[in-house]
Design a protein that fits this description.
Largest sheet: 7 strands, parallel
Number of domains: 2
CATH architecture of the largest domain: 3-Layer(aba) Sandwich
CATH superfamily of the largest domain: P-loop containing nucleotide triphosphate hydrolases
CATH topology of the largest domain: Rossmann fold
CATH class of the largest domain: Alpha Beta
Number of helices: 9
Shape: elongated
Order of helices and strands: EHEHEHEHEHHEHEHEHEEEEEE
Strand order of the largest sheet: 3-2-4-1-5-6-7
Number of strands: 14
Length: about 325
């Protein structure tokens, strides 16, 4: 979301009341890596149980202003705050009930621009709020860069939470914290698909995790059958009985895209069109393959059928 014309980055921290936004900002402002010499303007659009110690925050060159209603959240009032403090950056604790899309579309003071959107979600009450405020949640996360679930329990259906968000916004980074504030490494405990199923179905949003995990732990997949979507990347040899079902991946930035995938051997490759989307059902082996210049996962296609492309072609590794 960054823009090279932005001179005053605005970091939006969004989330339902009592989700932990104030705690997150209170912690962040005090961290050594977050310190700058110029003023930071912290705007809060709601006041929950936890409050800011304004005198304490002045030690970190941070001033706090409260905007109490959506009617007061205007370009004119924001411009007045800019002229008052001349901040080098802005932290905005936003109230999603005021409309997140309204925020994204509104005019901001000269030089201001949304640099990052972070959504804080209380894992303990997520399902209740999601069921009753689905449109609000969808609007919050659809353009978010990061979503943090806090106050989670390991027995919560965290993979389902992640999958639900990835359907709305495949590019967002999703992390989970337990009730003590420690990160939960979700995929050390479980993958977002059933690896013991007769056919391991890989959802479109989980392809990146599948690709990395099979590369890191091929022994878990050898002899098993997987099913996923990919583009058929064919050999120049028309009679080649192999292809690579691949997906585009962003490895570090928007300008660094590459196709990732594993070699799939099957006589069905002869009838495929280069670049068409296919659903592949294949058994996994681990063996020498000249394209890898060594050993690696090799797929043996059982069924390869044309299909519609996924809603998001790009692969993300989170």
């Amino acid at each position: 979301m960054s823009d090279f014309n932005i001179s005053v980055p605005v970091y939006v921290v969004n989330g339902i009341l009592e989700s932990g936004k104030t705690s997150f900002l209170n912690f962040t402002v005090r961290q050594e890596y977050f310190q700058i010499d110029e003023p930071t303007l912290l705007i809060t659009c709601e006041e929950g149980e936890e409050e800011y110690d304004e005198q304490e925050l002045l030690k970190y060159n941070t001033v706090v202003e409260v905007i109490e209603s959506p009617e007061e959240f205007t370009f004119e009032n924001l411009r007045a705050l800019h002229r008052k403090y001349h901040p080098d950056r802005v932290l905005l604790e936003y109230n999603p009930l005021w409309g997140t899309n309204k925020l994204r579309g509104m005019k901001l003071p000269l030089g201001w621009g949304i640099s990052q959107e972070i959504v804080i979600i209380d894992g303990a009450s997520y399902q209740i709020y999601r069921n009753n405020m689905q449109s609000v949640f969808t609007e919050m996360v659809q353009n978010a860069d990061m979503v943090i679930f806090n106050r989670c329990k390991k027995e919560d259906p965290l993979t389902n939470y992640r999958r639900g968000l990835k359907v709305v916004n495949p590019a967002c980074e999703v992390s989970f914290e337990d009730e003590e504030g420690d990160l939960i490494n979700l995929f050390e405990e479980s993958l977002p698909y059933d690896i013991e199923a007769p056919i391991i179905d890989i959802e479109d949003v989980d392809y990146g995790i599948f690709y990395v995990d099979m590369d890191d732990h091929p022994e878990k997949y050898v002899g098993k059958t997987v099913r996923f979507k990919g583009r058929a990347m064919k050999s120049k040899k028309k009679d080649a009985e192999y292809f690579v079902p691949g997906r585009k991946a962003m490895t570090c930035c928007a300008d660094d895209l590459q196709m990732i995938g594993y070699v799939c051997k099957t006589p069905l490759a002869v009838d495929l069109r280069h670049g068409e989307w296919v659903e592949v059902t294949a058994k996994v082996a681990y063996e020498y393959e000249r394209f890898y210049r060594g050993k690696g996962p090799v797929l043996y296609g059982v069924q390869v059928t044309p299909c519609r492309p996924p809603a998001e072609e790009m692969v993300y590794f989170n």
